[in-house]
Design goal:
The complex is a heterotrimer. Chain A has six helices and two strands. Chain A is mainly α. Chain A has one domain: Cytochrome c oxidase, subunit III, four-helix bundle (Four Helix Bundle (Hemerythrin (Met), subunit A)). In chain A, a hairpin with a 2-residue loop joins β1 and β2. Chain B has a single domain (27-492), classed as Up-down Bundle (Cytochrome C Oxidase, Chain A). Chain B has helices at residues 5-8, 19-23, 28-56, 67-102, 110-129, 157-185, 198-230, 243-277, 284-297, 313-341, 350-371, 375-381, 385-415, 421-447, 464-493, 533-540, 564-577, 585-603. In chain B, α3 (28-56) runs parallel beside α5, α7 (198-230) runs antiparallel to α8 and α14 (421-447) runs antiparallel to α15 (464-493). Chain B is globular. The chains are: A mainly alpha, B mainly alpha, C mainly alpha. The interface between A and C is large, with 65 and 62 residues. Bound molecules: copper (II) ion (CU).
Chain lengths: 209, 613, 124
C-alpha cells in the first residue's frame, strides 16, 4: 500500500480542503433550516384559525371590549435592527481575529454580545407585555404558535450568546490567535444563521397581515 | 508473516482493555461494536414483543394479554425495531465500516461519535424504562394525535415516547453531522466521490435524509410535549388545533425515515453481491443517482400515508404519482443488482445467500407498495394486515436480511473470527421460510379485512388458520435467531486460527488491514486511483497481496479516550427526561448544569494531550 | 477533489470581503428593513392613499422579496458563502429550498383542506 502523506499531516488532511469543523457547522445549519421550517409552517398553517382572540394584526375583542393590535411593530423593528447590527459587528470581530488585531476582535465581539443581550431583553419585555395584555401561552393557536416560534428563535439567540461570551473569554485570555480564528468563525456562522432566521420571521410573523 | 511489530512493543503500549476503556473510548470501531451489541439486544427485545403479539393472535378471542397491554406491545415493537433496532444496527456499520472503506483513521469527530452512542443508549433505556412503570407507549409507532393527547392518554405512556424519541433524535443528528463530514472530508487521497464504495454512498445519502428529516419530527414531538405539559392546543381540535397537522409533520419525517432504514441495506447488498460474483458492481453511476433520486423524491411522497384522511383529488393524485415514480429508480437498482450477479462466478457463502434473499423479498415488498400507492386501492388496504405484510417485506425481508448478510460478511473483520458456514446456511433457510410463513399470509388476511392494531379477532371471521401459520412462522424466526447466536457463541469459543485480513477476496479497503484492525486502521493513508480500490491494488500486485503485518501500537498518534461525551449525553437525557409526567423545572436545571459541564470540559480538552504514561 | 489546492488555514480570510464591503452590506440591510417597515406602515395606515392602493395587493410579495434579498446578503457576505466555495453554498441552498417547499406544500394542503372544512372564526 502506497504511503501518501507523512503522519504529521494526517490530522489536518481533508479531501476538500475545508476544515472539518466548518463543514460540520454548515451541515448543522442546513439541518436547523428544517427545524425552523417546521415551526414556521405550523405558524402559517394555523394562522387565522383561532377560535378566540387575540389575533396578530388589527383590533380584537376581549370579553366584548375592543383591544388594540397585539403585535407592536416599532418595538420589534428595534430588535431587528439590533440583530442586524450584531451580525455586522461579528464579521468585524472575525476580521480582527483573522488579522490578529486584538483590539478589533474584542471590541466588536463585545458590541455583538451587547446587541444580542438587548435583543433577548426586547423579547423578554415583549413576552411579558403581551402576557399582561391578556395573551398567555395557551390562550389560543396564535399565542401558542407565536410564542413557540419566536421563543425557539430566542433560545437559539441565547445559546449563540453563551457561545460568543465563551469565545470572548478565550480571546480576553489571549488564546485566540489568528490560526484559531475558526473558533470564532463557527460561533459567528451560527450567529448569522440565527439572524437570517429572524430576517424571515420578521416579515412573516410581524409584517404580513 | 506472523511476526508483528506489535510483539516488539513494550507491554504497556498494548491497547487498553477493561470496562473503563470502553466507557471512555472514542475509537469508531469500538463505538461501532457498542452500537451493534446494544442494538442487537434491543432487537431481541422487539422480537420478543412480536412473539407475544403472535401468541395472542394464535386463536380467536385470545386472552393472553389485555387490549391495553397489546397496545403497548405493538407500539413498542414498532418503535423498538425502527429506532433501537434497524437504525442503530445500520449505525454500527456506519461507525465500523465508513472510515475503513474510506481509508481513514477514524470519523471526523471521534468524541462526538461517542456522544451519539451514549445519547442513543440513554434514549433507548428511557423509552424501555416505561415497562417498569407499567406505562409503555401505547399510541402506535406514529403516535397519531388525539390518541396521544393529555385528555385521551393522561398516563406516562406517551411522555416516555415523546421524550425518548427526542433523545434518540439528538443522537441521530449528531451522528449524521459526523458521518456527513467524514464522507466528504476524510476520503483517502485520490478517492473521488464517484470512487467511493456503494455502502459509503448509500450511507452518505442516509445522513442527508437524517439531517433533513429529524428536525421535523423533533418539532412535532416538541409541540406534542408542550400540548401535554402546558395545555396548548397544537393538535387538540377543541382549541382549534388540527390532528391532521401531526400526521403531516410525522410523515414528512416518516417517509424519509423509511429510506433511512433501507438505504444502508441497499449499500450492504451492493458490497456483498460484487464480491461473491467476482464482478464489479453493475451500473455504479446509475446506482448512485437512483439512490439520490429515491432520497430526493422521498421528501415529496409523505402524504401517501394519509389518503384516508381525505385530502382531495389534487393532493391524492400528486402523492400517488410521486410515490409511483419512486418505483423507477428502485427498479433500476434491482436490475443493477441482477446485472451484477448475471454471468458472475457465484459463490453461495452465507452473506451472498442473504443478499440474494434480500433482492427477492424486497421486490415483493416493493410490489405491494406500488399497490397502495394508488389511493382507491389504499382505501381498501389501509389499516389492514396487508400494510403490515408490505412493510415487513421491505423492512424485514429488506433491511434485516441485508443487515444479517452484512453481519456474516463483516464478522471476520470486526471480530477476527470466521462464522460457521453450515450454521449460517441453516440460519438463512430458517429465516427465509419463517419470514415468508409469518408475513405472506398477512397479505391475505389483510385483504380479507383483518385490521391492524386490534388485539383479537372473532372465530367467525375465518382468520384463524392463516394467523396460526403466521405464529408458527414467527417462532421459526425466533429459532433462526437462536441459530445465529449459537453460531456466534460456538465460533467465539473455538480455537480456530485468526481470520485473515481478506477472507472473501474483497474489493474495498477494509480488507487491506488486519482483522480486527489496529486502533489507527491504516499505518499510512492508502492512495486510491479508482473504484474497488483493493481489487485494483491486488491486480497491480499480480493477484494477491501479502497478509498485512500489524505495526507498533503507538505508531500513529490517536485522540485520547474521553469521558466528557458521556457526561454531555447524560445532560441531554436528564434535561429532556424532566418532561416525563409534566415539566419538572429542577430536573431540567440539573440536566442543563450537567450538559454545560460536559460540553465545556469537552470543548477545552486537548484530545492529543500527553497522558502521563 | 483532492487536497492539493491549499491548506485550510490559508483558505480563510484573504479572499473575504473588505471592511468597506461589510459596511455597505450593513447599510443596504438597514435600508431594506426600513423599506419593509415602511411598506407595512403604508398599508396599515392607508396613507398616502394612492400609494397604499398600489401597494396593498402586492405587499406580501414585496415583503418576501425584500427579506429574501436581506437573507441572501447576509448569507453571501457575512457568512462568506460568496468566497467560500460551492460545497457550503450547496448544503445551505438545498436545505433552504426544501424548507421553503415544505412550508409551501403544507400551506397549500391545508388551504384546500380548510376550504372544505371551515371552522368557526369568531374573530370576524
Ligand atoms: Cu411512505
Amino acid at each position: 500500500m502506497a504511503t501518501a502523506h507523512a503522519h504529521a499531516d494526517d490530522h489536518h488532511y481533508t479531501a476538500t480542503g475545508i476544515d472539518n469543523r466548518k463543514l460540520a457547522i454548515w451541515t448543522f445549519i442546513g439541518s436547523e433550516c428544517m427545524f425552523f421550517a417546521s415551526l414556521i409552517g405550523t405558524y402559517l398553517v394555523y394562522k387565522g384559525r383561532d377560535v378566540v382572540g387575540p389575533k396578530p394584526h388589527g383590533e380584537w375583542l376581549l370579553n366584548g371590549v375592543a383591544q388594540e393590535q397585539m403585535l407592536e411593530i416599532p418595538l420589534v423593528t428595534f430588535g431587528t435592527a439590533l440583530l442586524l447590527f450584531s451580525s455586522f459587528f461579528v464579521v468585524l470581530a472575525l476580521n480582527g481575529a483573522q488579522k490578529g488585531n486584538r483590539k478589533q476582535l474584542i471590541g466588536w465581539l463585545l458590541a455583538t454580545i451587547v446587541c444580542g443581550v438587548f435583543f433577548v431583553g426586547m423579547q423578554v419585555y415583549e413576552f411579558n407585555h403581551f402576557a399582561h395584555r391578556g395573551m398567555g401561552y395557551t390562550t389560543n393557536l396564535f399565542s401558542s404558535t407565536f410564542y413557540t416560534l419566536t421563543g425557539f428563535h430566542g433560545t437559539h439567540v441565547t445559546l449563540g450568546l453563551v457561545w460568543l461570551v465563551s469565545v470572548l473569554v478565550v480571546a480576553l485570555r489571549g488564546k485566540l490567535p489568528p490560526e484559531k480564528a475558526l473558533n470564532l468563525e463557527m460561533a459567528a456562522l451560527y450567529w448569522h444563521f440565527v439572524d437570517v432566521v429572524w430576517i424571515v420571521i420578521f416579515p412573516v410573523v410581524y409584517l404580513i397581515r | 508473516m506472523a511476526t508483528t511489530a506489535l510483539e516488539h512493543a513494550p507491554a504497556h503500549h498494548e491497547e487498553a482493555t477493561g470496562i473503563w476503556s470502553w466507557i471512555t473510548t472514542v475509537d469508531h470501531k469500538r463505538i461501532g461494536i457498542m452500537y451493534g451489541v446494544t442494538a442487537f439486544l434491543f432487537f431481541l427485545l422487539g422480537g420478543l414483543e412480536a412473539l407475544v403479539i403472535r401468541m395472542q393472535l394464535w386463536g380467536p378471542d385470545g386472552r393472553l394479554v389485555s387490549a391495553e397491554v397489546y397496545n403497548q406491545l405493538f407500539t413498542m415493537h414498532g418503535t423498538t425495531m425502527i429506532f433501537l433496532g434497524v437504525m442503530p444496527l445500520s449505525a454500527m456499520y456506519f461507525n465500523y465500516m465508513i472510515p475503513l472503506q474510506l481509508g481513514a483513521r477514524d470519523v471526523a469527530f471521534p468524541r462526538l461519535n461517542a456522544f451519539s452512542y451514549w445519547v442513543f443508549l440513554l434514549g433507548g433505556l428511557i423509552i424501555n424504562a416505561s415497562w417498569f412503570f407499567g406505562a409503555a407507549p401505547n399510541g402506535g409507532w406514529f403516535g397519531y394525535a388525539n390518541l396521544t393527547s393529555a385528555q385521551y392518554s393522561p398516563g406516562l405512556n406517551i411522555d416516555f415516547w415523546t421524550v425518548g424519541l427526542q433523545i434518540l433524535g439528538v443522537a441521530s443528528l449528531a451522528a449524521a453531522v459526523n458521518f456527513f463530514v467524514t464522507v466528504i472530508n476524510l476520503r483517502a487521497p485520490g478517492m473521488g466521490m464517484m470512487h467511493m464504495p456503494m455502502f459509503v454512498w448509500m450511507s452518505f445519502i442516509t445522513q442527508i435524509l437524517l439531517l433533513l428529516s429529524f428536525p421535523i419530527i423533533t418539532v412535532a414531538l416538541v409541540l406534542l410535549m408542550i400540548d401535554r405539559s402546558f395545555g396548548t392546543h397544537f393538535f387538540v381540535p377543541a382549541g382549534g388545533g388540527d390532528p391532521i397537522l401531526w400526521q403531516h409533520l410525522f410523515w414528512l419525517f416518516g417517509h424519509p425515515e423509511v429510506y433511512i432504514l433501507i438505504l444502508p441495506s441497499f449499500g450492504i447488498v451492493s458490497e456483498i453481491l460484487p464480491v461473491f460474483s467476482r464482478k464489479p458492481l453493475f451500473g455504479y453511476a446509475a446506482m448512485v443517482f437512483s439512490g439520490a433520486f429515491i432520497a430526493f423524491v422521498g421528501f415529496g411522497v409523505w402524504a401517501h400515508h394519509m389518503f384516508s384522511t381525505g385530502m382531495g383529488p389534487f393532493a391524492d393524485a400528486f402523492f400517488a404519482l410521486a410515490t409511483m415514480i419512486i418505483a423507477i429508480p428502485t427498479g433500476v437498482k434491482i436490475f443493477n443488482w441482477i446485472g451484477t450477479v448475471w454471468g458472475g462466478k457465484l459463490e453461495f457463502k452465507t452473506p451472498m445467500l442473504f443478499a440474494l434473499g434480500f433482492i427477492a423479498m424486497f421486490i415483493m415488498g416493493g410490489l405491494s407498495g406500488v399497490m397502495h400507492a394508488s389511493p382507491p386501492a389504499d382505501l381498501q388496504q389501509t389499516d389492514t394486515y396487508f400494510i403490515v405484510a408490505h412493510f415487513h417485506y421491505v423492512l424485514f425481508g429488506g433491511a434485516i436480511f441485508a443487515l444479517t448478510g452484512g453481519a456474516y460478511y463483516w464478522w471476520p473483520k470486526m471480530s477476527g473470527k470466521m462464522l460457521d458456514e453450515g450454521l449460517g446456511t441453516l440460519h438463512f433457510w430458517l429465516m427465509m421460510i419463517g419470514f415468508n410463513l409469518t408475513f405472506f399470509p398477512m397479505h391475505i388476511v389483510g385483504l380479507n379485512g383483518m385490521p391492524r392494531r386490534v388485539y383479537t379477532y372473532s372465530a367467525e371471521s375465518n382468520f384463524e388458520l392463516l394467523n396460526k401459520m403466521e405464529t408458527v412462522g414467527a417462532f421459526l424466526l425466533g429459532l433462526a435467531m437462536l441459530v445465529f447466536m449459537w453460531n456466534i457463541l460456538k465460533t467465539w469459543r473455538s480455537h480456530q486460527p485468526p481470520a485473515p485480513a481478506d477472507p472473501w477476496n474483497g474489493a474495498t479497503l477494509e480488507w487491506a488491514i488486519p482483522s480486527p484492525p489496529q486502533h489507527f486502521n491504516f499505518p499510512a493513508l492508502p492512495r486510491v486511483h479508482g473504484r474497488d480500490a483493493l481489487w485494483e491494488m491486488k491486480r497491480v500486485a499480480g493477484g494477491t497481496l501479502p497478509e498485512p503485518t500489524p505495526v507498533a501500537h503507538d505508531a500513529v498518534p490517536m485522540p485520547n479516550p474521553s469521558w466528557k461525551p458521556l457526561v454531555a449525553a447524560l445532560g441531554v437525557a436528564i434535561t429532556l427526561g424532566g418532561f416525563i409526567g409534566g415539566s419538572h423545572l429542577w430536573v431540567h436545571a440539573v440536566g442543563l448544569v450537567v450538559l454545560f459541564y460536559g460540553v465545556y470540559a469537552w470543548a477545552f480538552e486537548d484530545p492529543f494531550a500527553a497522558t502521563g504514561h | 477533489m483532492t487536497a492539493t489546492a491549499h491548506a485550510p488555514a490559508h483558505a480563510e480570510g484573504h479572499a473575504h470581503p473588505t471592511w468597506q464591503t461589510y459596511t455597505k452590506v450593513a447599510l443596504i440591510l438597514f435600508a431594506l428593513t426600513a423599506l419593509e417597515v415602511g411598506a407595512y406602515e403604508v398599508v396599515h395606515r392607508h396613507s398616502p392613499a394612492g400609494f397604499a392602493a398600489v401597494l396593498e395587493p402586492i405587499v406580501v410579495e414585496v415583503l418576501l422579496f425584500l427579506s429574501a434579498i436581506k437573507f441572501a446578503l447576509v448569507a453571501m457576505f457575512y457568512m462568506h458563502l460568496k468566497s467560500d466555495g460551492k460545497l457550503l453554498t450547496t448544503i445551505f441552498s438545498f436545505s433552504l429550498l426544501l424548507a421553503a417547499v415544505i412550508i409551501g406544500a403544507l400551506m397549500i394542503i391545508f388551504y384546500y383542506l380548510y376550504q372544505h372544512a371551515p371552522t368557526v372564526n369568531q374573530l370576524k
